[in-house]
Amino acid sequence: MTRAKYTSSDVDLMARMMRAEAEGEGKQGMLYVGNVIVNRLVANCLDFKGLRTIPQVIYQVQGGNYSFEAVQKGNVFYQRARGIERRLAEQNLKHWRQHPARYALWYFNPYAPCPPTWYDQPHTGQFKDHCFYEPKPGTCDSVYRGEAYSLSKLQFVDKRGSELKNSEPLLKFPLNFHLKLKVIFKLRWI
Questions:
Q1: Cα 102 from Cα 110, distance rounded (Å)
Q2: pTM, to two decimals
Q3: Are residues 133 and 99 in contact, defined by beta-carbon separation less than 8 angstroms?
Q4: Neighbours of 115 (CB within 10 A)
Q5: Peptide bond preceding 169: is omega within 30 degrees of 0, i.e. cis?
Q6: By C-alpha distance, which of 47, 44, 41, 131 is closest to 92?
Q7: What pLDDT, in 10s, does the model give residues 109-128?
Q8: 3-state secondary structure 55-84
Q9: Are strands 154-157 and 186-189 parallel, antiparallel or unpaired?
Q10: Residue pLDDT, tens place only, 47-64
């Protein structure tokens, strides 16, 4: 399941932005920038309401400036996408999320230690020169979409196929927890 709908031209555009913003930080740094791009696309909150496509995210203007500095400065952003960045962009669009950018909507290079907040949003971590910030709790729940499975959407069955009743239908597990459950139970979406 992908995190967002996309086209081949979206992958190219996103790949160019990832390279332009974080080429010096290697593949990992580019993946973190890609996290922020996809998070802004799915967020639909705060500064990112109404963004429905990768081009809308990349070319968004806030306060009279493009949200991504690379769009303004041009240099690397206006070069063709390379295969490696295209693969990284597709990873982000399909599934890849990791701390410190897992839920981040903002990042920047302060050329100094990372401040504890950025426009009142909490600092989540740093990778090389980029500081990452996610929304304050309760202000943008949609950025966390796809991170937990509710037991009410799962049917647990034992090895014979008999349904196991769950007593906590609202209990939620982290995304990687279902892999551990698969070892113990056979899971079937209902």
A1: 20
A2: 0.77
A3: no
A4: 11
A5: no
A6: 41
A7: 999 999 999 999 999 999 99
A8: HHHHCCEECCEECCHHHHHCCCCCCCCCHH
A9: antiparallel
A10: 999 999 999 999 999 999
